[in-house]
Amino acid sequence: MALPQFIGHRGYSARAPENTLSALHAAADAGIAWVELDVQCLGDGTPVIWHDTHVRRCSDGKGRLKELTLAEARQLDVGRWFDPRFEGERMATLKEALDVIAERGLGLNLEFKLDHRDEPSPLIDAVLPILNGGLPRERLLLSSFSNDVLDEIRQRDKKAPLGILFSEEIPRDWLWDAERLEPESIHVDWRYMNEARAREIIEGGMALVCYTVNDPDRFNDWWDIGVTSVISDDPLRFDRFTRALEN
Ligand code: G3P
Ligand code: MG
């Protein structure tokens, strides 16, 4: 799999409300090749594109996402909080987001969000059938902070393109997870990057993906180590650096 140098975090979330269809169109309009989106299930089992466990931060409602039906979630305005220009934006289902991604020719890093108290099966049961056949494998990467999610996807699909997400420091035994899951990529919070570990990942033949990088000046030295991709709210901020790298 060839990952691009830049992936739009939650769509193009610097230009449109995160994890919405508008954020996908904004990414495609700006020439961003891939987007990262978060997926989780509503109370009625519908997979939707959403980051938080609650709806307050990114809508005009309040309460827990997993206590809403799709009909209730659709009542929420998920655009106005970002900018009045996006008033009327509705929460996107995974299916709707995939349709836009396919239509606009984007690649997708889909991040499975799972509360550590929940079982992974309902989320995976809901998501995998929607993904099947929706995008070619070379334009899809499935990631999660939850090894329960990744293990279960791997059990069901030996060829699923997986990314292991680490928060904070990459643990010393990261290779143990990698040998079991055979991921395409390791995703690291760039603030906790460690050069020795970064080199191990790259030498192991995996892509090294850094999130969420919004300051090109502070990140610049990491490119030399061999970082594959950066997930950014605003990939276009890196324009002058990518031009320099390409030359
Ligand atoms: O997938 C990378 C990044 O999105 C992980 O953190 O909290 O923004 O979903 P978060
Ligand atoms: Mg995410």
TrEMBL record:
<dbReference type="GO" id="GO:0006629">
    <property type="term" value="P:lipid metabolic process"/>
</dbReference>
<protein>
    <submittedName>
        <fullName>Glycerophosphodiester phosphodiesterase family protein</fullName>
    </submittedName>
</protein>
<dbReference type="Pfam" id="PF03009">
    <property type="entry name" value="GDPD"/>
</dbReference>
<dbReference type="GO" id="GO:0008081">
    <property type="term" value="F:phosphoric diester hydrolase activity"/>
</dbReference>
<dbReference type="InterPro" id="IPR017946">
    <property type="entry name" value="PLC-like_Pdiesterase_TIM-brl"/>
</dbReference>
<feature type="domain" description="GP-PDE">
    <location>
        <begin position="4"/>
        <end position="242"/>
    </location>
</feature>
<dbReference type="InterPro" id="IPR030395">
    <property type="entry name" value="GP_PDE_dom"/>
</dbReference>
